Amino acid sequence: MIITDYYRFQKLQGQKSKLRIDCVASSESYPPMEALRNKEGALFVYLGDNVYTRAGNERRADMALSRGCHISSIFNPDTEQPYWYGDFNHTADALLFVHKDANFINGGVQVGAVVECFVCRGQRNNRAQLYNLLCDGDLDEEIEAVRKATATF
User: Fold this and answer.
1) Is residue 77 helix, strand or coil?
2) Where are the beta strands (DSSP E) in the chain?
3) What is the pLDDT of residues 93-147, one digit of tens each?
4) 107 CB burial (10 A radius; 0-12, 13-18, 19+)
5) Long-range CB contacts (< 8 A, 24+ apart) of 63-70?
6) Is the pTM for the entire model greater than 0.85?
7) Using an 8 Å Cβ cutoff, are 111 and 11 in contact?
8) What distance in Å separates the CA atoms of residue 4 and residue 23, rounded to the nearest whole number?
9) Cα(85)–Cα(135) distance, rounded to whole angstroms?
């Protein structure tokens, strides 16, 4: 399997932060993500503009995940597709994202937005190719298997 871990984030109603998305389901199996849980066991991140990286000759990321520091740059190659890709900072791991209603309204993530994060350990150098597999539907079976084996909070 290419996909090793799964985290489902959602923009919940009534949050003070406009960019916060909370983990509502996960495989609870990816140590770098699990390290971000607070004392109560809650996991949340912020989805927003990429203010963390500077691009010289390389393409600058469209967005970023953060939590006090940069977690991942997020690339959105095709705005017509509900998919993004990135990599977890300081690891060799690729991230694939499937999103629904993840629009920015009045400077914040739309309430009800869902961002699913699929971790592909050791695949950082293949993230663009994995994105293409995702768009072509070649990862659909793996995605469904990971979703079914997930703990919901």
Assistant:
1) coil
2) 5-10, 20-26, 44-49, 63-66, 70-75, 83-87, 94-100, 104-105, 108-109, 114-120, 151-152
3) 999 999 999 999 999 999 999 999 999 999 999 999 999 999 999 999 999 999 9
4) exposed
5) 67/36
6) yes
7) yes
8) 17
9) 11
